[in-house]
Amino acid sequence: MDLAAHATAESGATVPRHVVVIGGGPAAHRFAEAMQARELDAPADQPTHVTVIGEEPHLPYDRVALSRRLVDTEDLTLGDAAMWDSSTLRYRGGSAVTAINPGARMITLADDSSVHYDELVFATGSAAAVPPITGAEFGHVYRTIEDVDFLVAKVAELAEELGRAPRVVVVGGGLLGLEAAGGLQRLGGESTIVHSGRWLMSAQLDEGAGQALGRLIRAQGIELALGNRPSEVHGSATQVTGVTLTDGSHVPADLVVFSIGITPRDELARAAGLELGPRGGITIGEDCSTSIDAIWAIGEVASVDGVCVGLVAPANAMAEVVADRLHGGEAVFPGIDDATKLKLSGVEVASFGDALAKAEHALEVVYADPARGIYQKIVVSDDATTLLGGIFVGDASPYTALRPLLGRELPSEPGAYLSAAGAEPPASTDLPDDAQLCSCNNVSVGAVRSAIRGDHTEACTELGPLKTCTRAGTQCGSCVPLVKKILETELTKAGIEVSKALCEHFDLSRSELFESVRILQLTSFEHIMERFGRGLGCDICKPVVASILATQTTSYILDSGRGALQDTNDRALANMQKDGTYSVVPRIPGGEITPQKLKVIAEVAAEFNLYTKITGGQRIDLFGARLEQLPEIWKILVEAGFESGQAYGKSLRTVKSCVGSTWCRFGVQDSVAMAINLELRYRGLRAPHKFKLAVSGCARECAEARSKDIGVIATDAGWNLYVGGNGGFQPAHAQLLAQDLDDETLIRYIDRYIMYYIRTGDRLQRTARWQEDLDGGIDHVRDVVCNDSLGIADELERAMLEHVDNYEDEWAATLKDPERLRRFRSFVNAPSTADPAVVQVIDRDQPRPANAEERAVMLSGPTIPVRPKDGQ
Known about the structure:
Layout lengths: L5 E2 L6 E2 L1 E6 L3 H14 L8 E6 L12 H4 L19 E4 L4 E5 L4 E4 L4 E3 L2 E4 L3 E3 L11 E2 L3 H18 L4 E5 L3 H12 L3 E6 L11 H13 L3 E4 L3 E6 L4 E6 L4 E3 L2 E4 L3 E3 L2 H6 L9 E2 L11 E3 L4 E2 L8 H14 L14 E5 L2 E7 L9 E7 L4 E7 L6 E7 L5 H4 L33 E3 L4 E2 H9 L9 H8 L9 H14 L16 H11 L4 H8 L8 H12 L15 H5 L2 E2 L5 E3 L10 H13 L3 E4 L5 E6 L4 H10 L12 E6 L13 H12 L8 E6 L13 E6 L2 E6 L11 E7 L1 H18 L6 H7 L3 H9 L7 H13 L4 H6 L2 H4 L18 E4 L2 E4 L23
Parallel strand pairs: 3-4, 3-9, 4-5, 9-21, 11-18, 12-13, 12-18, 13-14, 20-22, 34-35, 35-36
Antiparallel strand pairs: 1-2, 6-7, 7-8, 10-19, 15-16, 16-17, 23-24, 24-27, 25-26, 26-27, 28-29, 30-31, 31-33, 32-33, 36-37, 37-38, 39-40
Helix pairs in contact: 1-7, 9-11, 12-14, 19-22
């Protein structure tokens, strides 16, 4: 095959080689990325342009994560959308290919346009299989974003029409079936899984594991009809009434979802004359080429040894092979890696390798605890040394460490890896370089170590850049804990201390220091330094200690020497601006304010010539106040019933809300009342970083709750609670913690969440990053907050109640004490003198800081009055 760029006969100018990809799924995306990466090293005289043609209107998205969209309208787009802005890479969405002419190397689209290709890559994926039974057309599938969005809307529609939880029958007890049933259950449906096998996931699990999984799934409230198939779906296209099974039984249903496997989308290939596998799919060789020159196939449509698989890792591997071959390489497809890991509503399931022990003389080392729903099995060679596979249900913690050891000699005896039996597994970081660490992206342990050392590029000494550089842990995420361990081990080997110390003065991390101060009930920086620190402290540890003391004590934050620990904003109880003036932000709980209070703010702004701005948090910010003016301003505001909005502290900022059911015809709960309740409860609470809340009165989400650290969204049955979101430099989408909560439970869960974050978060760590760093992420948070897995729920609630009961507005407390007011002076010996360096001009009818060209030139500094020597 001639892979060189084509040249025109007339001018000899280089014409880019055109690679066309049919299909816009994950395999196509990975191929496009692989091509772009290789083009950086390709000769300039051999350019390649890639066009990806997809039927769906979206950019390629993560189909593995579709279950998350059932409960959260998350953006599942793969990678950086800006990738498609490249001049050498184009995505044509919403376009269907209708025919291929291999002889002319042309494809025809549904709009009758034609596209020439030099190389063609099939990445058409697969379609959801539907059983050939009566009434199958009344059911639905679970395969695309549109499928999932339809199911979400349908469950809500049925619930409203029926006045009860819709009954959902999911046909298929494999990975997708379990995820669909779990997601629809969380939406408010009552799910029943119909599965032909005698146990769930019968293709990946043995009977012991399948039975354990069945018990755990039933514990989630999901019914099971095992060893059965549907024979007929009853109803119509608009309303299903039930399903008859092959044993003659009838299951009532309002909605039927088929999830029984996939059918490769090979119709175009069949029409073009490509060789197909015995069960469909395009037959490929070890180089992923097909039976026709210049045509390749990757992903679920590719048939390897007569088998098509719907897994991420093989698709990614095929994409890399074709990209390598198109650049003159000799890569070969390593074979199908069918390792599987699932987490459904807290139920962990994983299998890999020869999980069913089909190899001759294979030994099975098993630990089973039916009462706890735990099953762990390791399959080894007959001499009990070489790892062949494994199954884990209920506790899949050994999976991460064992997966890279597949086919290798185990460092310890097999029983040491059965964590559920109380065994202490050996360290997992002494893996050989050629061991596969990330199966999704085919990343070896050696590649990760090389990136950490910086063998070829700048050393990656932090987890985020390491993941970006190597791609390890960027797909399903199951290998992230091991990536993190290897990073720490390699840094230690290199003599780079992996320290969690707060700063040079404290060896403890912020969370460790917080707990130590709490347990010992220390109340001053001096006592804390004497017990745990050294030196005099710095601008890192002092504000942290001040924050810890503010959280754990009930006294005024600037008393008892703590004022000197605070940074500039906290010392002034206001945010310093670029010109040295300060902003004043009164608290407006929930964004609700009376005309009378609005008038007070307007009068203050006019009297002190302050710039006014409505903030994104539904408050009014007053800019341009001088330090000595702050007490005067706040005296007026406090007397009018305002209090500090604490826009200056690492604390609660705002609780944003929509108008909710009080005024809005779509509202289902009183979001304003809830927002006010939450803001008055958590006002003044210091934390590792600022945190924001929002309450939306319905699913239309006008308050943008899922972009906040804590988001509350009303439902007909109560409130859904989302946590760990934020905007800013690293935006994060909040994740669902719990749903349909009553008011009391909602507040109790938020109390626990905030106090757990305050106790365990690192310095200046937002909730999103904190959740990411926790082992288990949102699932761990859910276990602690909702299930009280650590047994500290009562303690966290008591800590929050102590804060609520002892809250005092900081500006009201300041105004009561003349000594506290003494700090609000620009010049100590001239307390009423303004700083002449503060110069403002009028712009758009409001004051703003003057720029350098607008300032007067001062030939000398300000004159400050000085008392005569004799004191007169």
